[in-house]
Amino acid sequence: MSDAQQTGGVSAGGEPRQSGAVGRLLAFAGPRRALTYLGCALSAVSMLVSFGPYICIWFAARDLIAAAPNWAAATGIAAYGWWALGFAVASIALYFAGLMCTHLAAFRCASNMRKRATAHLMHASLGYFDTHASGALRRVVDGCAAETEGLLAHKLPDTAGSIAMIVGMLVLFFVFDWRLGAACLVPVAVSLACMFHMMGGRGMGFMTRYMESLVKMNKTGTEYVRGIPVLKVFQQTVRSFRAFHDAIEEFTVLAQDYAVKWCQTPQALSLTFISAAAVFLVPVVALIVPGEADVARLATNFAFYAIFSAVIPTAMTRVMFMSEAFQSAADAVSRVEEAIAAPVVEAPAAPKAPRDNSVALEDVSFTYEGADEPALDHVSFSAPAGATVALVGPSGGGKTTAASLVPRFWDADSGRVAVGGVDVRQMDPHDLMDRVAFVFQANRLFSQSILENVRAARPAATREEVLAALSAAQCDDILAKLPEGVDTVYGAEGVHLSGGEVQRLMIARAILKDAPIVVLDEATAFADPENEAKIQAAFKRLARGRDGAPRTVLMVAHRLSTVRAADKIVVLDRGRAVEQGTHDELVRAGGLYARMWADYERAVSWRISSAERGVA
Predict the structure, then answer these.
(1) Cα–Cα distance between 345 and 408 in angstroms, integer?
(2) What distance in Å separates the CA atoms of residue 255 and residue 247, rounded to the nearest whole number?
(3) C-alpha distances in angstroms, 600 versus 47, 346, 400, 402, 597?
(4) Which of 407, 369, 383 is nearest to 513 (CA)?
(5) Residue 440: how many CB atoms within 10 A of its CB?
(6) Alpha carbon 158 to chain centroid distance?
(7) 50, exposed or middle or buried, with CB in 10 Å at 0-12, 13-18, 19+?
(8) Which among 127, 209, 414, 518 would be 20 to 30 A from 153, CA to CA?
(9) pLDDT tens digits, residue range 96-131?
(10) Is there a contact between 427 and 357 (Cβ–Cβ < 8 Å)?
């Protein structure tokens, strides 16, 4: 059972369960959860102690009114003042101690949430990251943990204090004069009714949609930032990136609709009533004065309630923010639990070792989550050890999906993906990853030196081994132009490389790893002619290990010129392997590959001639 299932997770409708949200959060704090309870208790006591000065005011007013007009007879007023000061200082000290406790627990909780989510994602299948954008994951791992930190550090002790404040306030309302206390309850009742209107029903669902909208903005915002160079080239604006623009519009409409259409009237009504709580005392006093025997005591009580009513706005505001914080925390912890529940690559109890480096897909079918049509439909082909097999076909045919199943980016729904005759699901995941090197269409360099970027494939590699791999990948010209050679930090002081140059560095990384199986996915997609020639030379070196033995190469390509010499070409169309054979065999067969090759030859011969003759 997943962590999310154990701790509550989300409801069937996708909305977070708020019941037990705090308990699920505190589970991340470990032993420090006790500090949260202690901090909340200290906060509650602090709030009760803070009523002391108001009580001292009542005693002072009583003595002054009783001694009037001989004010000098009220000799105990100074003592009440010192008691009030003592209560105020004690309240602040207790609240500070409580916050220290809750902050220690909150920091540990947020830290553990980040660590657990990150540690789990490190073991998640690589395909999971294809369907979950980095911006959305960053929002979940970092942003949601930060939100829960605020709840545990501030909102939770404030909630305990608010509950103590309300209980104490209700008690004091009826201690001195129940009639004036009842008058003070009117704005409290109106404010609570307004809050239930705002936070209940539609308001509960709003917080879920609000958090989803924030995640979407983070996701599309990250994609937009990465696409800024393209937008600038074509002189476009944010409106050209529809997903980001629509996410901003959706968030704006959602927030405005909730704030203006749903909350404006009840919020204004609530603030009006609680801010003018003392006004409700006047008609009550006017009604009871004619029959009051002890007018002096009534005046004392009126003074106390008029001053004490200032507590009401603070109490109601805390209740409102308390509800909002709990909704936000419930959503945040649910999202973190979803990340922790991400599918992982399971290791078998008794892993098997492959006999060689051959690769085979045997009657494999696979459908992406949420897709209507299978990406692969009963696909079978094999790549003998040391052979180069190319996967070609129209876009969306399943080439990348087929290659991704070999290193277990995804697991097949049916059929078997085998390495050396062993189902990849029966291999130790670390052993499988050690046997496979990747060069993808889109690659990213870390903000580190070129040396460390390449060494990431094998951290124990020496400097000389890294330099040898770079040379084998045709990267000598890249190092020659960098200010500090292989020690140059990528991205620092304007140091950037072209797509083809980055691709050669990725090949150097794969060469350094020296894995017996190599997966190439559109590795020449962003290369200019000069870079492509060097990349092809690097491929030849990559296809041989350090011992000179040929590597098993699985190559996904659109440029048919790059796969003409492959030992086998597998043509995938609409998730099916429609043709297999060498280049010459497939051309003679006159099928899909032959048509693709004819189209390629026409494209290669295409050229622009003079304006008078048009396009040839």
Answers:
(1) 8
(2) 12
(3) 79, 43, 21, 23, 5
(4) 407
(5) 17
(6) 27
(7) buried
(8) 209
(9) 999 999 999 888 888 887 887 777 777 776 666 666
(10) no
